[in-house]
């Protein structure tokens, strides 16, 4: 059974930082493309950051220079370091895993709430 479990969300003031973590089980971590998405109230789910081939990362323009995605293959975890947070970063953040050998195999975590407010 595949499980993606996010943690690390919470309430933070503008300009603050949070670190999200996603623990993956039931998959061969190295065979999956991993990413973070978010969904704000009334908006569609959008890509925040993803790790692509060659160890490179792809970021949404709105978070470039502020967020950093990383993975620990040995531990099976995916992290998102979020700095200089803004109120518009408020959303539910989801971890996503897509099999590199079969792109119809896509898994989602349950999400973790991030609220940026003073």
Give the N-to-C terminal Cα separation: 40 Å
Unreliable segments (pLDDT under 50, ≥5 consecutive)? none
- What's the rounded overall pLDDT mean? 94
What is the H/E order? EEEEEEEEEEE
Please identify the structural class as seen in this structure. mainly beta
Largest sheet: 7 strands, mixed
Keywords:
mainly beta, seven-stranded mixed β-sheet, 11 strands, 118 residues, four-stranded antiparallel β-sheet
Describe this structure in words.
- It is a single chain.
- Strands 2, 4, 5, 6, 9, 10 and 11 form a 7-stranded mixed beta sheet that branches.
- The chain has strands at residues 3-7, 10-12, 18-25, 32-39, 46-51, 57-59, 67-72, 77-82, 91-99, 106-108, 112-116.
- With 118 residues, the chain is mainly beta.
- It starts with a strand and ends with a strand.
- Helix content is 0%, strand content 53%.
